[in-house]
Protein: Tetratricopeptide-like helical domain containing protein
Amino acid sequence: MLGLGFRAICDLKSQYHCFTALLDGYIKLGDIKPARQIFDSLRDRDVVAWTALIVGYVRNGLNNDVLELFRLMIKEGPKPNNYTFAAILSVSSTMVSLDQGKQIHASAMRSGEVLSVSVSNSLITMYSKGGSINAAKKVFNLINRSGDTVHKNVDLAKVAAERLLLIDAENNGAYSALANLYSARGKWEDAARVRKSMKDWGVKKEQQGFSWIQI
Structure:
C-alpha cells in the first residue's frame, strides 16, 4: 500500500495529478511495484497513466506484463495513442508472433489515430522480421502518402526508407523517398549515392508522388 506520507502530500493537491507525478517518478527510478500500486489506486486512469506504466514495463524489460497491460487497456481503459502504440510495438517487433503484431496494428487502426512515423517504423520492423514483406511495404507507402508527416519527421522517415531497403533492395518507392529526404536536408552527395544505387539496381519505374526531378 502507499505510504501515509504520500497520501498526505497528495491530499494537499489535486490527487490525480499528484499520483500520476509519483507514478512517473517511480517508473523513472525503475521501481515498478509501487508504480503499479499507484496506478491501481487511480479511479479514473487516463491514457497518460496507462501509457506511463506501459513505458515503465518496456524500460524494465517486463515484456509479458507489457502485453497483458495493453490487453487490459483495450478492454477497460481509454483508447491508446501513438505513444502507447510506439511502446507496445517496440516489444512486438522482438518477442510476439506476427499474428499478435497484426492484432496490435488493427487496434492502432481502430483507434482513429493518424499513425506517427515512429509507430510506422516499428510496424515496418515487426513485419519485416516476421517475413511479411508486402505488409511492411504497405506501411511504408502510407508514410509517404502523408507528406506533412514526412516533412515534420525527416529523420524518422529516412530510417523507415533505409529499413525497407534492407529487406527489399529493389523497392523504387523507398529509393525515391530516401533520395528526396536527403535532398530536403541539403545532403546532395547522399542523394546522388541513392540515385546511383537506383541505376545500379535498374530501378527506373516511377511511383505516384515521387519524381526524378525531385531527386
